[in-house]
Amino acid sequence: MENQILSNQYQRKTTYFIMVLLLSLLNGQLLAQAKSEEPGTQAEPTNAISITDDSPTPTPLPTLPNIRQEEQTLSSVASIFVKRFQFEGNQVVSTQQLSQLLESYQNRELSAEQLQAAKNQITQYYINHKFINSGAIIPDQKVADGIITIKIIEGKLSEVEVSGNKRVRTAYIQQRLVDKPGVPLNLDVLQERLQLLQQNPLFERINAELGPGLSLGEGILRIDVEESRPYHFQFNFNNYRSPSVGAYRGEIVGWHHNVTGWGDTFYARYGYGFQRGLKDYNFKYNLPINHYDTTLAFHLEHSDAKVVEAPFDRIDIESEADTYALSLTQPLLKKPNKSLELGLKLEKRKSETSVLDNPFSFPEGGKEGKSNLSVIRFSQDWLNRSRTEVIAARSSFNFGIDAFNATVDNSPDSRFFTWLGQFQYVRRLDFLHNPLLQASQVLFRVDLQKANEGVLSLEKFSVGGATTVRGYRENQMTRDNGLISSLEWRLPLPFLQWRLPKLSKNPEDGIPQLATFIDYGRAWNESSEIPDDPKDIYSIGLGLHWSPSQYINTELYWGHALRDIPEPTDKDLQDDGIHFELSLLY
Fold this sequence. Notes:
The chain is mostly beta strands. Among the domains are: 1-13 and 73-154, membrane protein fhac (Ubiquitin-like (UB roll), Roll); 156-227, Ubiquitin-like (UB roll). The protein has six helices and 29 strands. It has helices spanning 2-35, 95-101, 112-128, 170-177, 187-199, 435-438, and strands at residues 72-73, 79-82, 84-88, 108-111, 135-137, 142-143, 147-153, 156-163, 203-212, 218-227, 231-238, 249-256, 265-273, 278-288, 295-306, 317-335, 338-355, 358-359, 370-385, 389-400, 417-428, 441-451, 461-463, 477-479, 481-492, 513-524, 536-549, 552-561, 578-585. The protein has a 16-stranded antiparallel β-barrel with strand order 11-12-13-14-15-16-17-19-20-21-22-25-26-27-28-29. It has a three-stranded mixed β-sheet with strand order 3-7-5, covered by helices on one side. Strand 16 (317-335) and strand 17 (338-355) form a beta hairpin. The longest helix has 34 residues, at 2-35. It is elongated.
């Protein structure tokens, strides 16, 4: 570089010397002519200087080229004037942001070290924003007009290597970690997707390692997974059904989380009343159709019910109901601690009732004992959770339509509109000073249904029972509109811990929880009301939860009804405010 600089200086000095020499010669001739024409002097014509064709032709002066700044390469100079920077290859960071970042380096002379600092500042900006294999380089280039080009390399994942999977397809895992090829790698986004994958019930454990690829700006992600057992069975025994059809029932539930290897779920349930008043079953199949977890689902449900409670058991009241549904759900927001999902469902529901084997329609029960509903449901589900609390909200707009042989021209019929809103809040009281109270939690719940007119029995809102207002019978009130609200406090009792050998493995297994609650419910019709029938019921009570392992769960609640309801002839445990359930999971 020093030889090049000396050569440039020598050329400039030589050019300068020639120009001075030529200007001196011209200046001498002009001075001689100026002296002969001084004021007051009359020159004789014969002695006047004249240039004729016979005069010798002067040698023409050489033509000098236009003087302009010579293009320079960065490698040939120790410093250079930089007017501005231009950028190539940037996608996630705009050119305007990059220019503002290097504003202090523009319109000034920069050394090689300062250019390096400018480049490093851009690289650090990418790293600070978690683009860990992205950065900037300044290639050697010819610099004209003070413009320097900086090349941005936004790093990507070139490959995702998966090991340990046996049933889950490799592509299922890869698509949930890299949704679009060529998108710059962001560490926060990658960690978030790994957390979502860890929350997936398909996996017991996930280990990830990020390493460099073969080329500049490329990364390789190595994933090792341990799959969970995809199938489960559960047995439930409870008294969560109406005593009129037999409160005591058993239930067998089974599901498989990964039928084809693409995360599709098959669910089946069969319930049987021990008093032979009710048997029902349902099937559901969920299929994710893309890596955004857009899910297509089909649902089938059937139930047969018979009144077994005196004195109505003598007239042989029976009902049969079927439900078919096709739904599509789409997550709009899916993060480890929050989610928002929209759903659209087309549902076909029908029921038949009979008395003494003859079709019979109860009030608001359809035509000749038959009811057919066609419903479009638009739902929105929101979930937000943290270390100490969980908030869940659901909204469903339900539109009854005249389609698929629906019951119409009746009051009520299949043409209706209802809105169902549900809200749940769970909070651990870790802010309290007492260690025992810090482990306690509060549960709050509100459900509300509002109809624009009277609806058929399949769409009515039920109030009363273990999941609505404890201390009352299941389905104590069934109306067009309804509201339930519940507040519960659960307190763990570690000094009463009772563990089961070979089953209790976690430290919290076997610790009972004492619960105290207050419930409220209200139900009303849009049109006719039953005379002297209460609209409101409410209760207070106690409960006990005991889970000796993750596979066994028991709960027992006693509710005291604060509003008296006429007792039926055939009493049940529910009339004494007792609700219980035993669940066994395999």
